[in-house]
Amino acid sequence: MGNKNWWKEIVVYQIYPRSFQDSNGDGIGDLKGILSRLDYLKDLGIGAIWLSPVCKSPQDDNGYDISDYQDIDPMFGSLEDMELLIQEAGKRDIRIIMDLVLNHSSDEHPWFKEARKSKDNPYHDYYVWRDGVEGTPPNDLGSTFGGSAWEWVPELGQYYLHLFSVKQPDLNWENPKVRQEIYDMIQWWMDKGVGGFRLDVIDLIGKQPDLKITGNGPNLHQYMRELSKETFQKGDLLTVGETWGATPESAKLYSNPDGSELSMVFQFEHISLDEQEGKGKWDLQPLDLLQLKKVLSKWQTELKGEAWNSLFWNNHDLPRIVSRWGNDGEYRVQSAKMLATLLHGMQGTPYVYQGEELGMTNVRYPIEEYRDIELLNLYKERVENGYAEKEVMESIYAKGRDNARTPMQWDASENAGFTDGKPWILVNPNYTEINAEESINDPHSIYHYYKTLIQLRKEHEVIIYGDYELLYPEDTNLFAYTRTLGDTKLLVLCNFYGNTVTFDIPEEFGEDKTLLISNYADVHSENELRPYEARMYLLV
Ligand code: TEU
Ligand code: CA
Prior knowledge:
- The structure is a single chain.
- This protein is an alpha/beta fold.
- It folds into 3 domains: 303 residues, Alpha-Beta Barrel (TIM Barrel); 52 residues, Oligo-1,6-glucosidase, domain 2, CATH 3.90.400; 75 residues, Immunoglobulin-like, CATH 2.60.40.1180.
- Helix content is 27%, strand content 16%.
- The chain has an 8-stranded parallel beta sheet, with helices on one face.
- Helix 10 runs parallel beside helix 14 and helix 11 runs antiparallel to helix 12.
- The longest helix has 16 residues.
- 1-O-alpha-D-glucopyranosyl-D-fructose (TEU) binds next to loops.
């Protein structure tokens, strides 16, 4: 594959291994399970798989707490299984993108076990420590998972920093030894033939905790450039950073076309639009479509020619988009297809999260059936602070990360074909109607719609490289835009809601246009869109 822009032209599929396919009956997905589903992924047409972490981990944060970066956790399989997966995926023109968690390790990593032994241990400064007095943390920095970001270690008389769980101590990127260990580890994975890396919360590695700076620290891009030069630039990789604080300006550094940092980043500005101003993910407000149009269009136009977008609605941390911003009841199929059309018509590399192609939905479980540390900590914190349990549960139903982590729904057999054991988390009860087998057998399913969108991207360069222009910016129901590449134009029309809307189709899309895809069987009227109706036209 000599095409240096291959990562701009493919669609990536994210697998959350724990919930994808179990092969040995322990109720937990594993690498052999993924191997058994490679032909399903090949048929879908994707070009790379982003694997959430499978390295050795005590699983405090489901693998985002790594205790050995160069070995596979036995619950997922072995290094040989990983090497076989890389090889078998490669035979199907699918690259494997590893999830690198470099901001923190597990507290069970040998480095941290050494570091906490004494202040003069050679590994002590692999982490972030501050002298202190018990009960008086260095400052009020908080952990994303609740409580203080500082944990007291009595035998040292010091606190260590953990921006996530207590079992996820932050690595000290100011220490060149830490950086070199990381570069050596990445090179080791590159030598095994991985096709790229997803970099967990990479915008935090420049943190200055004494100044209470966490994201976008002053040395961040210096570290990014060194990391890229010492590793990624020595290969032909897709590299994507998770950067919650990215702006179009910083994205032009992260994904500079000169390759000095990464291929692209996940920015989350659109994802935060249904949060109450300054309150965070659990305090909800309805999405304002005009805001969504403004934000997504800004990212389309401001990166043009200077950086590259990722395109996503879902991942393992986010609720299912058809429940969040679609209609997972009467119009589940139409709205899931509309959301897919809206995203896959844009410029950038699209990411499909496992089950998104089936229109999998959120769940509403009793609290004891949830597993995610983030939402369980939230529940405890808010109920203890007097929030009505019903209100807390509504936040969890809407935004809890376990919405994305219920097992992949393969068929209507017990546990949706995910496991013949007891699943680590309940399967969504709607698996009898929503599953891959049913979708593959239904030519009008969301699955076949995704397959067509992925194929259209391969067939029409305008979808990959065309310039974006938003239409009807003030329309509060219609999200429509064009893409232009030379004489070729694409028109994407999406009715974002469940009422019928009328509009005037742009004159230039008069007669000789071609309908590429639609989520209704017919075109009732060119200047009308039925509930959640989406259409993509080509003009050459
Ligand atoms: O996520 C970073 C992060 O801040 C979000 O997960 C956060 O939990 C937010 O509430 C999501 O809605 C990354 C990984 O994707 C996540 O799974 C890990 O838990 C986290 O980092 C720590 O490694
Ligand atoms: Ca298993």
